[in-house]
Structures are given as C-alpha cells and as structure tokens.
Amino acid sequence: MEFDSYTERKAFDETKEGVKGLVDAKITEVPRIFHVPQGSLTDKKPSVSVSDLKIPTIDLARVHVDKASREAVVEKVRYAAEKWGFFQVINHGVPLNVLEEMKDGVRRFHEEDPEVKKTYFSRDFDKKKVVYNSNFDLYGSSSSVNWRDSISCFMAPDPPTPEELPVACREAMIEYSKHVLSLGSLLFELLSEALGLRSDILKSMDCLKTLLMICHYYPPCPQPDLTLGTSKHSDNSFLTVLLQDNIGGLQILHQDSWIDVAPLHGALVINIGDFLQLITNDKFVSVEHRVLANRQGPRISVASFFSSSLLPNSTVYGPIKELVSEENPPKYRDITIKEYSEGYFKKGLEGTSHLLNFRI
After folding, report:
1. What residue segments make up the domains of the chain, in order of their start?
2. How far are the Cα atoms of 59, 121, 152, 349 from residue 138, in angstroms, in the given order?
3. pLDDT at residue 44 greater than cutoff 60
4. Quick one: CATH architecture of 5-32+65-358?
5. In this model, does residue 48 exceed pLDDT 60?
6. What is the 3-state secondary structure (H, E, C) of the chain?
7. 42-46, 122-126, 141-145, 271-275 — which is least confidently predicted?
8. What is the pLDDT of residue 350?
9. Is Cell inner membrane included in the keywords of this UniProt record (predicted)?
10. Number of other CB atoms surrounding residue 50 within 10 Å
C-alpha cells in the first residue's frame, strides 16, 4: 500500500494523545511519519579533535560584586555568543527547587489522563492561551514528525490567569517564569555590554518584553536510531533559556560537527536566537541544534523564548545602528518579528536557517 504521509499525520493528530499515546499503546516500532531520511543521523559525527569540546559554562556569581568581576563575566559572554551561540550558566539565581518543581510539573501534565490534556489541545494560539499538541509544524514541515509532545503559552507580557493554566504545572510555571524574566534581564545587560554598548540597549529594543514558554515531553523511543526528538533548527527568538533534565540528547552544530550539550545539574542552557544574530549584524551567532530520541525517558525540557513570535508587534528590527559602519555595512534588511515568524512556522523545522531569506 502506498504511504500517504498527510493521512497518517492527520490520523495521529486526531487522537489528540500525541507521542505519549503511541508509547502508552505499547508500540514496538516507530511509525513511518517519524522516520528521518537514512543516514541523516550518522552524518557529522564529532571527529576526534572535537569530541572533547564542550559549550562554555559561565558562573554568574560575581556579576554584581565589582566592576572587574563583571567585566570578566561579560568577556566570557562575548566569547560564547560570538564563537558558540550557546553556553550554560551556573549561580544564575533561580533556586534549585524551582527548577526541579518546573520539570516535575511538566511531567505531571504530560502524564495526566488524556481527557484532561485534550481540553488544552489546539493548533491555534488565537483560540487558547495554553496550547497542548505534538509538533507545531505537523502539517507544514516537509521533514519527519518529531518524537515529542509540548505544552506552550506566553508568560509575558500578558500571562494567562492562574485558572487558565493546567493544575499540574500551574504554580511551577508562574514561579519559574518570574525567575526566567529576571535572569533574562541580567543576560540582556551582559550581552549589551559584550557588544560594547550601554547595558540597557537590548532591553530598550523590547528584547525582554515577551516570553514564550514551551514545555517538552520526549517519551522513551523503541527505535531511537530511526527518528529525532527535535529536528535541526535555529531559534525564532532573541534569546532562549533552556531547562533540561539529566537524560541528555541536545546537540549543537559546531565546526560542522554535532556536539553534545551534556546536562549539568542546576545549570541553565542559554542560546542566541535568530533575531539577536540579525540585530547584532552577525556578531552573535544563532546556531543550529537538534535533540536525539532516546530509549530512556521521558526526557523533560522547558524552552523559554524571548520573542513575540506570531503576536501582533509593529516594531521593525534591523542591525543596531552603532554596530554598522562603512567597513561593516548592514547584512540584513529591516523586518518585523511577525513577518519573520510567519515564514519560520510555515517552513517548519527542516534544517535551513530562515535568516538567509533576509540577507541583503
């Protein structure tokens, strides 16, 4: 029988039970809609020279101690943002119990009775404040379906009321998002200083204004070599703060090799998004990354994106004036985040940077 990807995707979607539903049904084989092209998982294995490479870890403990200590942190942030696009932060001010409770809350929601989860099921952010589904680009993407389910909502500037949030993770999401906004404020200051600009420049451009939280659940996979947890992509954000559990699977593309982002207990992973690469005129890099599927699980992660995404936002962004000159002219045309995001979501996570479409 001929394989009809659309029909199979639709049938999967209509269960409203996501990948968790497949695992609960005790499947032993991964359905074809999840299969990645053969060979795509074995490409770009780290060579011996890069296998011991790790993304930078930055200790924020001394950032408010004195000028010299702060400048030393800013220097590390600059190096990480320019050369890696990714770094982990420790002593970031978010209490460990808040991190643990957030992960537990996400797990509780995704392991709820399916009937409870279905009340949040949607593919339309205009209709619901809190959206649960599997693969935002299920129908748009040409690539295979990813082995994960997600719950998403904007936690700033206009968060849901507590009653609109699922009971399983309500308190955790409210508490954790407060801390992420506070950490984001500090990170945008450090990144502004790393550009050699006044510390409030990125905040004054509303980079901190909107926070989209996406809570992922990657169930254990019976055939992890056939599929991906998340396909290769760069982020539709200024900055992303990622909380991941200890299972691992996140990899970034660095020097044309896939490098593991090994979980570090109590740390948060920070990465530069496409909009920050655009407004810094390529000084900071938004790097492609992916998540492997795993026999272990479930893997829990919470990605907090500083980005207004598809929300109405008339602000026009282009390379920051202070960063361009005759020797270094603007590399991108001016855009709105909504225009960028519409194309990004239409394209789905299929591995090429959407930024290329806006280059001058």
Report:
1. 5-32+65-358
2. 38, 14, 15, 10
3. no
4. Sandwich (2.60)
5. no
6. CCCCHHHHHHHHHHCCCHHHHHHHCCCCCCCHHHCCCCCCCCCCCCCCCCCCCCCCEEECCCCCCCHHHHHHHHHHHHHHHHHCCEEEEECCCCCHHHHHHHHHHHHHHHCCCHHHHHCCECCCCCCCCEEEECCCCCCCCCCCCCCCEEEEEEEECCCCCHHHCCHHHHHHHHHHHHHHHHHHHHHHHHHHHHCCCCCCHHHHCCCCCCEEEEEEEECCCCCCCCCEEEEEECCCCCEEEEEECCCCCEEEEECCEEEECCCCCCCEEEEECHHHHHHCCCCCCCCCEEEECCCCCCEEEEEEEECCCCCCCCCEECCCHHHCCCCCCCCECCEEHHHHHHHHHHHCCCCCCHHHHHEC
7. 42-46
8. 61
9. no
10. 14
Structure tokens at 320: 């920051």
Stated length of the chain: 360
Copy the structure tokens of residue 161.
């009321």
Structure tokens at 249: 């699977």
What integer pLDDT is reported at residue 49 of this predicted model?
Answer: 56
